[in-house]
Design brief:
Strand content: 25-35%
Number of helices: 2
Helix content: under 10%
Structural class: mainly beta
Shape: elongated
Order of helices and strands: EEHEEEEEEEEEEEEEEEEEHE
Number of domains: 2
């Protein structure tokens, strides 16, 4: 482990340490959590030749700054934003050398919501239950980053980093998510109303994307029924009594008591994690 870490100078709305989470513990009541946009996290690690399980910093809507304690290679992925080192713009989705004592800053993204800062060697904060992911729902893992925090850096891998030649897809203006029918779709009076266009609510977070625009009604014989708790996965679309669906994201609970009307295909949940409040999301039947 490197003795010279990063000192956080600003976090923006929220900055969290994330990796690929802690799978296999749902039977103990512990959700997986991890990076909300796993594709962006994995790209950052691949560019630096880290193992994909290394930890990155998930920056929500920019505003992150840190002083770098030693010469490092950095890659910034996810929602595209202006990244600077001591005020000078540097590359996006590519390995960038940052000298010791410099300040790296991430601006507000042009589109999308979450930007990922990866460092060669990974951020080596203490793991909890085998992962360095911050789970906001349960409180498991390191706390959200705060000004003055010092983040240690792990040992650099022996392989050389490289530059991907494939284009890096940016988060789209209009998000289209493929949705398979859920186990409780028959609870809806008009199931077809699920597959339509919605607006992302400002009450959304890493637990779930709250969707607005209409209310989904239950069939008459189910209006007063309650469900026992049953397991849910990332991408589940749960319909609470108010009728506005919630699309579960990285920090979702392991069980729920409301009907799951649909499930977003796992590959599309990374797109959902980049949707901003007020943005349109179209659900299409898978």
């Amino acid at each position: 482990m490197s003795a010279a870490g990063w000192t956080v100078r600003a976090t923006g709305p929220r900055a969290l340490v994330q990796d690929l989470g802690r799978p296999g513990l749902a039977h103990l009541g512990v959700g997986r959590s991890g990076a909300a946009d796993r594709r962006a996290h994995r790209l950052g690690q691949r560019l630096l030749r880290n193992d994909e399980t290394a930890a990155s910093i998930e920056v929500t809507f920019g505003g992150f700054e840190a002083e770098v304690g030693a010469d490092v290679l950095v890659a910034v992925t996810g929602a595209p934003a202006v990244v600077t080192v001591d005020g000078a713009p540097v590359g996006y989705a590519a390995p960038v050398r940052v000298p010791a004592g410099s300040v790296l800053a991430v601006g507000v993204p042009e589109r999308g919501l979450r930007t990922y800062v990866s460092v060669r060697g990974g951020f080596a904060v203490d793991p909890v239950l085998g992962s360095r992911a911050t789970d906001l729902l349960s409180g498991v893992g390191p706390p959200p980053l705060a000004e003055g925090d010092v983040l240690p850096i792990g040992a650099a891998p022996t392989d050389f980093p490289y530059l991907d030649v494939a284009p890096v897809p940016a988060p789209p203006d209009d998000v289209v998510l493929r949705v398979a029918p859920g186990p409780r779709l028959d609870w809806l009076a008009d199931p077809g109303e699920l597959w339509t266009e919605w607006t992302v609510s400002g009450r959304s977070d890493r637990v779930g994307l709250r969707l607005e625009g209409r209310t989904l009604r239950r069939v008459a014989e189910r209006e007063r029924d309650e469900l026992p708790s049953e397991g849910v996965v990332r991408g589940s679309i749960q319909v609470p009594p108010g009728g506005e669906p919630v699309l579960f994201l990285a920090d979702h609970p392991v069980t729920g008591g409301y009907p799951v009307a649909g499930v977003v295909l796992d590959a599309d949940t990374d797109l959902a994690a980049q949707a901003r409040p007020g943005q349109r999301v179209r659900l299409v039947r898978a």
